[in-house]
Design a protein that fits this description.
This protein is of the alpha+beta class. The chain is 42% helix and 12% strand. The strands form three sheets. The chain has a five-stranded antiparallel β-sheet, sandwiched between helices. It has a two-stranded antiparallel sheet with strand order 6-9.
Length: 343
Amino acid sequence: MASDLDEISLARWLRNSVPEAGGLVGLERFSGGQSNPTYRLITDRGAFVLRRRPFGQLLPSAHSVDREFRLISALHPAGLPVPRPITLCLDEGVIGSTFYVMEMVNGRIFWDGHLPELEPANRRQVYEAMIDTLASLHNVKVGPAGLADYGRPGNYFARQVERWRRQYRASQTEESPEIDALIDFLGRSLPEQVRTTVIHGDYRIDNLIFDQNRNQVAAVLDWELSTLGDPMADFTYVALNWVMPQGLSRASIGGLDLSSLGIPTLEEVTERYCIATGLAKPPRLEWYFAFNLFRTIGIAQGVKKRLIDGNAAGTDPQAAVRALPQLTASALAFAELAAAATA
């Protein structure tokens, strides 16, 4: 049983607010890095999932589980593979924070990008399903879905570059002419935003649950970074795994023999995504790769600062710090390619 929730209060609320759940039998907190703690509710009628805001003082807009609940409530009836939302509780007196309950989706989560547990034909199907699901998300019409005000509609990358610039500067521990040059380049070479859609913000293979028997996405999880924005941010965040070497992250597959593994190439998934979303031609990806790497650098630099300050968390914060030089070099290389392409 989880010890950080008032289980008696939760059980009482569950009986009154979610009659389909029945009585609370057990409670287990999922492991992992979710910034919004997530639990399996075991009841006498099955399993459900509870997701809550962290306890304590938070920025007003941070960890907005009510916003997540609104999004999956819009996407589920639109046919997107998200858990069925059940109810939102804004009464912090129940467990100490705002939370919501959704269905428990059973299936498979793949933690390693080269999918060692699958045969080649199945690997291709898994990757194609991942791309198809992302395209389906980006094809959702935000107006009819009731999401026109879910985020600011324009200048997405301008806002994002500035956000991550501020975050990097806040955690900067030494001078870096390379990062200074990268920030300068990104800020003065912003791509034109031609589409505005719902974007996930952290779309990757281990944030997906796949059907137990079919190589199809059963649920997309962890919507805490979702907003309205340029869908190329989502697609290139995924596509970056094809150009970064295996080992840099769990999902990286750069340098692998994709043909023998049965994994589609970057060109194949780019074409598939473009066809599914109606893009006339594949865009150049270098600028977007440089941006996504800068975002990753900002996160890793924050880990480095916390290590220096003595309050780093996570299972291996040193790994993020060790990756900084390679991330920086790769970001600069893509920035140079992007600059050369527009010269």
